[in-house]
Amino acid sequence: MSDSYLGDNLIFIISQPRSGSTLLQRMLSGHADIKSSAETWLMLHPLYATRDQGITTEYGAKWAALAFNDFLEHYTDGQPVYDEAVRDWAKTFYENALAHSNGKIFIDKTPRYAMIISELLRLFPKARFIFLLRNPMAVLASEMDSFVKDDFNTLSVFQSDLMEAPHQIAAGIAQLGKKAIVIRYEQLVSNPENQMRALCAELGIDYCDAMLDYGSTPEAKGFMTDRVGIQQRTRPVTGSVGKWKLMVDDPQLLHFAQQYLQELGPELLNALGYPFEDILAVVGEGERNPKGLYPWRLAINCQDFFSMRDRYAQCRYRRRVTKGRLLGPVFALYDLWCETCRRFGRAIATLP
After folding, report:
1. pLDDT digits over 122-144, tens only?
2. Across-strand partners of 105?
3. How many CB atoms lie within 10 A of CB 193?
4. Is residue 51 exposed (0-12), middle (13-18) or buried (19+ Cβ within 10 Å)?
5. 3-class SS string, 64-132
6. Kind and range of the H or E element at 10?
7. How far apart are CA 90 and CA 6, in angstroms?
């Protein structure tokens, strides 16, 4: 392992989406030696290759993982040889990207790396890991405003980002211990110069004023970059820090905030540095299934796994919007009956 690629020239930014990771990436890229790109998602494919869940493919990911792990166990030196192959693979891409841009340090900013923190730590022990934290309520509010809007089932696309990532990030910080570099979005935008100077000191690089005014820093190319907020300004601003509190003015958003708060719970939120009681004082507890609102459990979960009760609740909400409070439930029952008949018909058609 002495000659292995251990990530000496890598910085990973680990965060939930909508946490300001593009802002931090852009600020750090003001340093002449630091280069980056749009989200690479580079390490997700090789590190999910040995997992039997969490990935879907045409060829059958579960069977592929079983076969591949069998091969590693019985015909190679096992996990270490795969780790070494992945390191070499990653080195090819990262160092080629640096060669193209005449850089010395590459930032890989991919929020869903929160799902592979422990593997990244094992593969690249000499890389620097920045954990960018933001109040999860603000993350939820930003997801709703940027992507979900009134199509509440779209929220399920971000289930892992909202429900799993905070746990993984807290575990990653604990695993890395004193080597974890923790930055809070709220502090970064409130006092950017002090925060960046302290961050540069931890990274072992020189601070430069171009980090604060990033208007001249080249924008990352590619589809997977922030197209919502970062392009509207050239310096950090505090305008969105307390914006999540506006959710209390909208009954539907307030319901989502209340349920999300309860899902995360006091232990996790306190560990992340966002006291549960402080957030509870703003949003309150609320009901799990308030009348007239779209239930959180339906919005956050994939429709493929809905029970019959869930499907009826979804139909009832939609029909109440179009047919009113009295006729809505009746039409919902009719819709559910029609859907059941169609499913039964399709099942019969596939019989030999």
Report:
1. 999 999 999 999 999 999 999 99
2. 34
3. 12
4. middle
5. HHHHHHHHHHHHCCCHHHHHHHHHHHHHHHHHHHHHHHCCCEEEEECHHHHHHHHHHHHHCCCCEEEEE
6. strand 10-14
7. 10
Cα separation, 306 vs 314, in Å, equals: 10
Report residue 128 as tokens: 């620097």
**Residues 6+ away with beta carbon under 8 Å from 256:** 140, 144, 155, 247, 296, 299
The first and second tokens of residue 167, run together, are: 């746990």
Residue at 136: amino acid letter: P
Tokens of 238: 């505090």
DSSP assignment letter at 36: E
pLDDT digits (tens, 9 = 90+) for 53-70: 898 899 999 999 999 999
- How many other CB atoms sit within 10 Å of the CB of residue 66? 13
Closest CA to 22 of 142, 169, 193: 142
Total-model pTM: 0.90
How many helices, marked H, and strands, marked E, lie in the chain?
14, 5
Nearest to 213 by CA among 198, 196, 200: 196
pLDDT at 188: 97
Rounded Cα gap, residues 72 and 83, in angstroms: 11
Residue ranges of domains in the chain, CATH in brackets:
10-232 (3.40.50.300), 243-290 (no CATH), 306-349 (no CATH)
Give me the half-sphere count of Cα atoms (radius 13 Å) on the Cβ side of residue 80.
4
